[in-house]
Design brief:
Organism: Lentzea rhizosphaerae
Largest sheet: 5 strands, mixed
Radius of gyration: 34 Å
Number of helices: 9
Helix content: 40-55%
Protein name: Anti-sigma-M factor RsmA
Structural class: alpha+beta
Strand order of the largest sheet: 1-2-3-4-5
Keywords: Membrane, Transmembrane, Transmembrane helix
Shape: elongated
Length: 249
């Protein structure tokens, strides 16, 4: 409704119109003419009183705290945003830096390429076996099919050193299922009703383990729990290798 519109006639008036009047969203000149008419109507007055009572009930409600797991995810997202971004380097600039490290200019790259090509030509007249060995790269562990990435290695006792990588993962590793994780946490007296914020296989002092990141009980805090998949269980507290609470900066 705009100030150019006429004041609605009534009674009766719609509940929406009375609610707009009660909320103070009507143009002042319209509200000034409408309010005395509405307050003279018993049915409209009852609606106004009901709206007043609703506002009082809402104001009397206690503040609703944010769930810990929601607060933890927000903190984690803010922490990730706060990390300095890697500088953007053009492909040409990266190539120039690489060539400078190798001591090669533009012509040097061609010489190096020609030299490498000459080696291939030198062995090519030989047996087919030699040519194949020169042409095919030796397969590495990371490129071989079926090989998973190695677990994250904790530096000493510093669980925070792998915090960022674990936070991004949802890999239960040898624990396999959320139920198995819950049983291992229960064995250590750790109660958590929410999905871990992050979980990943790691190595702690050379021993294979699984690290789970849980809400820390306060805004900005995280609980880092390291479990031994071979010994943890509902009745096996010895399966908890570490249980620390941190607050990343």
């Amino acid at each position: 409704m705009t100030g150019m519109e006429r004041v609605p006639m009534g009674p009766p008036w719609s509940v929406d119109l009375i609610a707009d009047l009660h909320a103070g969203v009507l143009p002042p000149e319209v509200a000034a003419q409408l309010r005395p008419r509405v307050e003279a109507d018993p049915e409209a007055v009852e609606i106004l009183q009901a709206l007043d009572a609703t506002l009082e009930d809402l104001h009397a409600l206690p503040p609703i705290p944010m769930p810990d797991h929601v607060a933890a995810r927000i903190d984690a997202a803010l922490a990730a945003e706060a990390r300095p971004a890697a500088p953007v380097v053009s492909l040409d600039e990266a190539r120039k830096r690489r060539n400078r490290r190798l001591g090669l200019g533009g012509a040097g790259v061609l010489v190096a390429a020609a030299a490498a090509f000459g080696v291939v030509l030198a062995v090519s007249p030989g047996t087919q076996k030699s040519t194949d060995n020169a042409a095919q790269p030796t397969p590495t562990t990371s490129s071989a099919p079926g090989n998973a990435a190695p677990p994250l290695a904790v530096k000493g006792d510093d669980l925070g050193s792998v915090f960022g990588e674990v936070l991004k993962a949802q890999n239960y590793g040898p624990l396999e299922t959320p139920d198995r994780l819950a049983g291992c946490l229960k064995g250590g007296g750790i109660t958590s009703t929410s999905k871990p914020l992050g979980i990943s296989p790691i190595t702690l002092k050379g021993k294979e383990a699984v690290m789970a990141i849980l809400p820390g009980g306060a805004v900005g805090q995280f609980r880092l729990v390291v479990l031994d998949p071979d010994t943890c269980g509902p009745d096996k507290p010895q399966g908890v290798l570490a249980d620390n609470t941190i607050k990343p900066r």
